[in-house]
Amino acid sequence: MKRFGLMLTLVAFSATAMAQGAKVTSASSNVKYGQLDKAKEAIEEAILHEKTKGQAKTWMVRGDVYKAIAESKNPDMKALSETPTRIALDSYKKALELDTKGSLRKQINNQLSLMSFTVVNAAYEFNDKKDLVNSLDCFEQSLSIDSITTPGKIDSAIVYNAGLIADQSKNYEKARFYYNRCIDIRYGGSQVFGLLAITYRNQGDTATYMATLERGMKVYPEDCSPLLVELINHYISQNQSDLALEYLAKAIERESNNASFYQAQGALLDKIGKPDEAKVSYEKAIEINPEFFDPWLNLGVQVYNKAVEMAKAANDIPTNKPKEYDAAIDAAYDQMNKAIPYFEKALSVKPDDTYTMQALKECYYKLRSKHPEYNDKYNDIKAKLDAADQK
User: Fold this and answer.
1) Alpha-carbon distance 52 to 5, whole Å?
2) Is position 68 within any domain?
3) Looking at 153, 175, 198, which one is the last position of a domain?
4) Domain carrying residue 50
5) Contact 232, 248 (CB under 8 A)
6) pTM higher than 0.90, yes or no?
7) Is there a domain that residue 139 lies in?
């Protein structure tokens, strides 16, 4: 009787094992016929059962199921998982771990290679949906797949994109990791140093921010203009005009035909009370780019401000000296009149700029008695401003 009972136990044990093995086979078969809901149900049971959860094939088939879900064109099947590529990749990794003899490695590697395209596409799709967490995860999956299928291969574009997405999601630790990998493989040039530096600036680490920019300029001495611009903007934002001018001089030395550098130089020189030097810089910017709005406007402002100072000086003349006063006011108005061509040119470059229109309106109004031709111009500019206010 004991022997008979033992035989019954063995038969029951064998039947259970076979039933669970059939779940794995069923899942694999259902994938082939596109019945992914049934495949998912079967394989999820198999990975939980004591008899099949430790088998490499079980996990490989699970990878196949979720890979198929990720690649399905059927919305109902696609909806079976929110992150199918992640589950597929983890399942294939588990299968490789359990496949001690390596009998499934080639098959799994082939599946992973095919899935790599799906993973990258998913990364871009998640990014389009502003789902940065899953976008980053998919880029990292791609890198993980490469490390399995082609050890030693580095897809530099994927590394770079992973850094950008991590950066955008404020995951600065990961962003630095990927940016540093780009630097190690010399991908992205000096721009990557700028991106890396900004991650430190965003967390208040100014010292490392500056050191990273300086390091980038040493590594890429022939391609460091973006880093110079970053440093210049930093010093401008910190009201350190002298240092900003120092780096602007370096930038101009490198790119002598960059009108923006001369415009920035002029603005800083104006700021520290060197209008004559500023004027030279503005004129150089215009020489390079005659349709550059900012230097035209700033030259007009320079001339106008001098007229305002002259008018203030005129008002300080004693009332018992009317001839001196009249002469001084006339000189101030003549100076103001010199600003008009600059403002008019600026407005022709940027016709909707209300600041320039306001400046012209004031000039036309104050000078129309002496220059009647400004009457019509005053009325036109006033009408444009009134229309802008109503929008």
Assistant:
1) 25
2) yes
3) 153
4) 19-153
5) yes
6) no
7) yes
286 assigned to some structural domain = no
> pLDDT tens across 354-367, in order?
999 999 999 999 99
Would residue 302 count as lying in a domain?
A: yes
| CA–CA distance, 212 with 226 (Å, rounded to integer) | 13
Counting the structural domains of the chain, the total is 2
Task: Choose the final residue of a domain: 97, 132, 153.
Answer: 153
pLDDT of 353 over the 70 cut: yes
Encode pLDDT of 153-165 as tens digits. 899 999 999 999 9
Give residues with Cβ within 8 angstroms of 225, minimum separation 6: 190, 251, 254, 255
CATH of the domain at 69: 1.25.40
Beta strands in the chain, from DSSP E residues, in sequence order: none
The DSSP string of 242-286 is HHHHHHHHHHHHH-TT-HHHHHHHHHHHHHTT-HHHHHHHHHHHH
Q: What does the alpha-carbon distance between residue 114 and residue 35 come to, in Å, rounded to a whole number?
A: 20
pLDDT at 281: 97
Measured from the Cβ of residue 352, the count of other Cβ atoms closer than 10 Å reads 9
What's 350's domain CATH number? 1.20.1050
Is residue 80 a contact partner of residue 69, using CB atoms and an 8 Å limit? yes
